[in-house]
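URGENT: need a sanity check before tomorrow's submission.

F., can you look over the Phospholipid-transporting ATPase record below? I want to be sure the sequence and structure line up before it goes out.
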Amino acid sequence: MRSDSGPIALRKMLPFSRRGGRKPSTSSDHASDEDHLLMDEELGKKRYTPNIVINQKYNIFTFLPLVLYEQFVVFFNLYFLLVALSQFVPALKIGYIVTYFGPLSFVLLVTISKEAMDDYQRYKRDKEANSQIYQRLSPSGPHTIPSSKISVGDLIIVRKDQRIPADMIFLRTTEETGACFIRTDQLDGETDWKLRLALPSMQRLSGDTELMNVEGTVNGMCLSVSVHMCLRWKETDAPHKDIHSFMGTFTYLDKTTMAERTESLGVENTLWSNTVLASGSAIGFVVYTGKDTRAVMNTNHPKTKVGLIDIEINRLAKILFLVTLCMSVIMVGLNGFHGLWYIYVFRFLILFSSIIPISLRVNLDMGKTVYARQIENDTSIQGTIVRTSTLPEELGRIEYLLTDKTGTLTKNDMELKKLHMGTMSYSLDTMDEIQAHLASACEQTEQSGKMNMPGKSRRNIAWRVKDIVQALALCHNVTPSFNLDEEITYQAASPDEVAIVRWTEQMGMVLVHRDINTIRLRITATGEYLEFEILNVFPFTSESKRMGIIIQDKQTQEIFFYQKGADAVMSSIVQYNDWLDEECGNMAREGLRTLVIAKKKLTEEAYDLFKEKFHEAEISMHERNENKQAVIESHLETELELLGLTGVEDKLQDGVKNTLENLRNASLKIWMLTGDKVETATCIAVSSKLVSRNQQIYQITKVSSTMEAFDEIDNLQSKTDCCLVIDGESLQFCLDACREEFIEVATRLPVVVCCRCSPTQKADITCLIKDYTKKRVLCVGDGGNDVSMIQAADVGVGIVGKEGRQASLAADFSITQFSHLTKLLLWHGRNSYKRSAKLSQFVIHRGLIISVMQAVFSALFYFAPIALYQGMLIVGYATLYTMAPVFSLVLDQDVNEEIALMYPELYKDLTKGRSLSYRTFFTWLLISVYQGGAIMVLSIILFEDEFIHIVSISFTALIFNELLMVALQISTWHKIMLLSEITTMLIYIGSMWLLPTYFDMSFILTERFVWKVAVITAVSSLPLYIVKIIRRRFAPPSYTKLI
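Structure tokens as predicted:
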């Protein structure tokens, strides 16, 4: 959507009334009633983005070009494409073209089919979303319209449980309160319902059809939907991603007074696309469609993550290409560079092309799919979802674990544990005293007929308790609802608020009703109801760190401003006291989340003045939030009466202590990144066993100069085994002033706790650790504020929790509780990495050995570039004859599950990358040279008289050698492994009868053929069995000592 502010008219051909001063319409005019024309009165036609959901990656024209491009930027595929294309050059042609295009076509077919299926599923989902039917309001009544036909300026009716089709201004609802709830879990991942408010002036209309008689302006853009209705919308608030903010004004003509009135529009008056209406029906005025909606603009397309094993294999592929090139040049050089020697070099390159195995990519991808299914089907970590199937091996290479605290290490299950009121303090075992004081104060109130104490002289303890309980029962954004059993449940955006309202219910002051205008409380002791009118609500924001509410007691007409918030901001707002800071520190050390509660009584004159100034700030179009906050601070937030301090406990997740201890023993360096205070975070770090027993805790707080930062870092240099606790301000200062020095010291520490961290800081720290250490980083979190950190990590793990599913949806792996990380890393991570390393090296070996045999064959025949194996043999070698046994290695395990989980120290070996390294690669290269040379040389020596049968002799020995090598690599036999070995052997023997071109059965069935092939196979493979036995005897792997 363009950001100009020219007047745009959206007109329908409608019957004109006399009041409009226009002639009546004809029937043809009325027939075009549903044709929606967007006209620019000054500039002509103006187009808005169509309201179409498009999640497809391709269309019918771009599918093949884009998919093929994505495939051929991969070194493997590009190399084999060039080799296959070279077969169209007569001078380079070796064997059948199908033997080169066949494997490449199979790989491409598998990939293209997968992409096509995935994109078709996206197409079906898009089509379903675009064809959903809605009702559009017009003067002639509601008319059905598909979602894709909705455009800016439409009045759309949305029913309960329907998806909101576009970004809309909320005009009216069927709910009497003028408010409705929406579910936003598909937008922000949060499971709690959000309250939305209809425009008061529109809600007061007698019926929906009255909307057709409204003349008004919504930020200046003229949208005429009837003769009498002219809503204007000026694009001063251009489309942007922030789902938590919206600024606008609605100016309309009051027909009773003929005066122009203005109402402010905020995010509470919006219905964002892709949310779901949870209560009532609503009518919305469409302001953004398609790509301009918040939902589409927040659809992230994070950078594709590539596993470390894929990067390592890509490096090895380039080395293999150099090996191939060197072998080709050597072969030509040994024969002398005569004639068209470069043609011979290319022919040898083609002959040795199997050194770079095209099947490696397919085998690894299929292996990753198997690992993903094994993880998802593991009943001990039920609910785990693998969202990025290309990263299972990364779980076995993690060295840094970055975790959120609230909802990740803790349950986000809050319980109010302490209440401090300056001179009195209450905990769980003395809460009955609060109930007694509250009942006493309420009974006195009922008897005296007054709801509040007239003066401070009579403010005894009971009244003070009543004040703070009433403040907690009123100052929130919680909405009660009743189920069929008349039990109360609470909806709120924060579990803290629900915990506090539940506590007030237990104390005897129950929230029974809440709408946009009123709050009703029931006093359990007397059965009496207290009713309050809501005058203003100031929601909690991460910037203000507090929320407030202005209410008026309907019985006494007294006006009160209640506020609660973090001690860091509230301490400067409340009246002077000498206990708040100390008690906040005490509660934080106990691991409790603190909230300061305060109130202020307002006179009617003071409130009227505030209301006037606040309305001016509300309708301002520049720096609205800053203006509103300035009015609140100057008129309300001065000399508030401090009522008390609450301490809410967030319980630890099940199994957190054991999990952190195991991961620490696995040599993972753990960072806890939280928004909590230093004291709270430190307490949780100790109680969760993140900090081990007797481990020193070193704090860095309130650093304000470069000299201080360097001093702290110098002090930290010698403390290599301590836990560093640093606050957000000091962290940012260190990152700005001495980034390299700080990260060098911090990354060496076993535990780091970063407090008061913003989401941006979390992502920055993640990237910094990755870039500086070049190690694999895993981030785990459960809330929307953890998404940026999760997406920045090498492996992101999201926990499905009370904060919603946003982190889970953005993550590579989704789990239901933190303790599942133990098995995910120590067992599944181990298996995935070890199996893929073994599988990839064996596939490389399979290509190397046949190339060595080809080289020996060519060398013995005057270095002629003639193919040893052609046609079905070369195709079947990597498929029918070896694929099943080789792929069965994805079921192998070097240790059993019990050992892997019991001894987390075994995980440390994995992070060194020894299972797939240059050392193991060159070891397999030497094995391939030995075996390929042994098979080829012995075949020629033992069958000198039957040289015509050299192909069947050497190929049979090669297949049996590969089957024995697979058996040699297996640590723990699985029935599928045994079945694949036997089945493959039978398939090979059976195929001899079907391929008479290569196999002479009269020769193969002789005893001489059998024993000589057995000797060749034994010579090529038996020494490796002997070496394996010797190594296990004198240099066993670390895990064998535990078995």
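My own read: DSSP finds 34 helices and 36 strands in the chain. Confidence is low (pLDDT under 50) at residues 1-46, 220-236, 450-458. If you see anything odd, call me.
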